[in-house]
Amino acid sequence: MAKYFDVHPDNPQPRTIGTVADSIRNGALVAYPTDSCYALGSRLGSKDGISRIRAIRDLDDRHHFTLMCQNFAQLGQLVHIDNDVFRAVKAATPGAYTFILPATKEVPRALLHPKKKTVGVRIPDHVVTQALLAELGEPLLSSTLLLPDEAEPLTQGWEIKERLDHLVDAVLDSGDCGTEPTTVVDFSSGEPEVVRRGAGDTTRFE
């Protein structure tokens, strides 16, 4: 049965954030809010977390997982990024964008696109997500909480708790955060390619 945590959207309680971060370090799979919709998150190196997210969302091995980063210091350890791409990504973050880039050796092989060896990274513009990342001290393996055969992600913490009670370990609820997922921009070739239009404005990449 999932633990349920109700947190303030603007001033998240440090004790609650600490409890959730500890549970992630110990292998928990959590549902948490972001600036584009709710997501599933687990520790970066957790094979169990990867398999559980794949099972909940019915994903194949071509799915790009997202590594949620607190800042550019973390992001730079996970992906190869040249100066031109860095400037483009920097100008759009924090925000509702996911960027696909070639992964470094810091990223577990199980998270990479099998052919391209790329991974998705992003820096969210959400108080609760940032507080959790700061407390965790490392990137969070993440995937949009979009269930199979459903058109939109789940948006209410109580509903997530109700429907995924035996599939996740904790639900972090800070209120509605919308249904539109991130805009995904693929920079793996060096040039931007918008592969999903979402909450982030695409004009700067077109």
Automatic annotation (TrEMBL):
* Entry-linked Pfam families: Sua5_yciO_yrdC
Show where the YrdC-like domain sits: 14-200
Q: What residue range is the signal peptide? A: none
List the PROSITE patterns: YRDC (PS51163)
The Gene Ontology terms for molecular function here are:
L-threonylcarbamoyladenylate synthase
Enumerate the UniProt keywords alphabetically: Nucleotidyltransferase, Transferase
Q: What name does UniProt use for this protein?
A: L-threonylcarbamoyladenylate synthase
Q: Kindly give the InterPro entries that the UniProt entry links to this protein.
A: DHBP_synth_RibB-like_a/b_dom, Sua5-like_dom, SUA5_domain
Q: What is its EC number?
A: 2.7.7.87
